[in-house]
Design a protein that fits this description.
This protein has one domain: Porin, CATH 2.40.160. The longest helix is centred in the N-terminal third of the chain and has 22 residues. The relative contact order is 0.18. The two termini are 25 Å apart. The chain is mainly beta. The radius of gyration is 19 Å and the shape is globular.
Length: 261
Amino acid sequence: MVVSRNPGGRKIKRTARAFLLAALALGLGQGGGWAQEKASFQLWSNFTLGHTQSHRLYFELDTEPKIQASGTDAFRNIDLTPAVEYYPCEWIDLTGEATAGFTKQNAGVNSFEYTGRVGIRVHLLSSDRKKVFPKRKMLGRIVLANFTRLEYRNFAYSGDTPTSHEWRLRDRLEFKYPLNRARMSLPKTLYFSMDAEAFVPLSERAPETFASKFRVRAGFGFRHSETWRAEVFYIRDWAHNTFSQFENNVNAVDLRFQLFF
């Protein structure tokens, strides 16, 4: 069903476009604060397999490679992340994740990371669970949620760099809005998505080339059906290089494909 045009809908669409333009301007600007260092450019991708076990339980396996496309570092990374989500009620998701990843931090150091994290996502308006169940109640078009995670990160390095560990808190505010359908759960839905996430170390920072401290993502997605969806994001990272102790900011494009069965 295509929603008829109305002043309220046009206003929200203008707001979504304004959010996207603001994110682009924020990322590309080079003046003041975090943006004083010249930003490098990276290409990211995600391929995700998901399975809904029941109306309360969902499993996922995500593969995420990243490469440095421009800049002075020889950064490369691949992460493999199995995850589980449990839905105790309509508006809360409880999550558990375990990441194993290999990173070429720079010309002289490689690292292997194994990280466990737990989290809670609170849906403030409608929700966008991976597969929306037929009886789920929806308040409206806008998807707004807050996703908080606590992670324990462990790093092993090549060469003489000693192993390291750190606790880190991550908090992300998520916004999604369907552009051509009444709800995110409908097939063939084109939607706008934007989020902002803070990374807050709770202990001594582990040595990393790109230890992200704040991230903004904005882009578009297409939900073809319950079976698959695709997304493309522009990402801006304000990062800190804890090997060399300087700001190392990143622009990235992330192509994402999600398959559900």
